[in-house]
Amino acid sequence: MLKKWTLLVLTAILHLHCVRPLDNGLGRTPPMGWLSWERFRCNTDCKNDPDNCISENLFRTMADIVVNEGYANLGYEYINVDDCWLEKERNTYGELVPDRTRFPRGMKALADYVHSKGLKFGIYEDFGNYTCAGYPGIIGYLQQDAELFASWDVDYIKLDSCYAHPVEMDQGYADFGYYLNRTGRPMIFACSWPVYQIYAGMQPNYSSIVRICNLWRNFDDIQDSWASVESIIDYYGNNQDAIVPNAGPGHWNDPDMLIIGNFGLSYEQSKTQMAIWAILAAPLLMSVDLRTIRPEYKAILQNKKIIAVDQDPLGIQGRRIYKHKGIEIWSRPLTPLFQNYFSYAVAFVNRRTDGTPSDVAVTLKELGLTSPTGYRVEDLYEDVDYGILSPQTKIKVKVNPSGVVILRADVQPDFDRRLSYYSTTQKTVFDPLNQIFRVRNNNEF
Ligand code: GLA
Fold first, then answer.
1. Rounded mean pLDDT, 223-241
2. Please, are residues 104 and 17 in contact by the beta-carbon 8 Å criterion?
3. What confidence tens digit (pLDDT) does each residue in 370-393 have?
4. Which positions are catalytic?
5. Ligand 1 site-directed mutation target among 39, 82, 157, most atoms within 8 Å of CB
6. What are the pLDDT digits (tens) for 162-181?
7. Is there a cis peptide before residue 336, judged by omega within 30 degrees of 0?
8. Does residue 10 lie within any of the structural domains?
9. What is the CATH number of the domain that holds 53?
10. How far is ligand 1, taken at its centre, from the CA of residue 45, in Å?
11. 67 and 137 part of one domain
């Protein structure tokens, strides 16, 4: 009898170990960096295309640019290898082997190089028999591979799920997370587990995903087109009630890479992707050729104010709060708070195709911004400071087709601060009768 109980308790303890939360302390704000897949895909032809093939040179070059051209200072810190870095076979010890001609110095050397630049290093694998591009997967080698990645000083692992059974993913991802933890090296764990289960008609168990993964893909791969970006925006808007509550410091929904600066998005559409990804508290993983990106696209990726929205410490994912006749309004609660009132980022998106900018006029109150102390409102792309506005103030924005206007509204702490702010702005006027600040009329001095 005693034996049976001891066995049961032991099994329970073992089981608890296997589903123990990842709790690696990482990703308190959404990870930022560069990832090869969307732009460079599985180009292994280093003979004919040495500058663009998946090789250590590509990642070293991108690491150099991330540092030299100011991306690192803004928070972009991970240099992530995606699929197609492996030899087709494990070695005689069962170890994964990086492609010998494309990564001649191996992954530890590449990680060392990336670390020498003050950056972090990420790698890609797949829970199943093969990666999506047909290289060896980790099934059957979970512990060994976790230890190998730790020995290479990897900081981030994206674990895909091609060639795997969706029903096995709950246990499989938990086990791999457990083995990652056991290495003692904190590594971001980026999962693809929910999206494959959704494809298979299953309901993902988000309460366990949130405890095991630092980020996870919910939906399709991003492609180089506005249609693809729109489909992702729609997915996150249409499913927000199920998705939004899962995001928070240490665990994020991942709508996939930023494709800004590539071939498929216009300037307006690129601004929209950046703004909506920030509202979604999304990981900001650029997949673009940083050697040739045009300055205006680089400026979007380097927009400090929008990055600050994405990286807000509260980590509350935003929502679509309005959708009518092609106009959408998205909003995200931010710091600072005053009493029970949040600050907000608000994005107005024009999904219409009728060629001329659309006017959107709305009061702050209608947007849910109701603090009687008012908000300091500014545009995050244009240099427009609306000054301090009361909840009753109506703001009017012009939104270009497939473009965005994104505002930030910081709740004001107290009356005195507002008064001193008032003296420095020309845009608002204090109305003593109603005790509010409002936008100055054209004929008012
Ligand atoms: C899947 C993933 C992509 C990319 C490819 C690589 O499609 O969703 O992000 O990693 O595999 O083959």
1. 98
2. no
3. 999 999 999 999 999 999 999 999
4. 160, 221
5. 82
6. 999 999 999 999 999 999 99
7. yes
8. no
9. 3.20.20.70
10. 19
11. yes
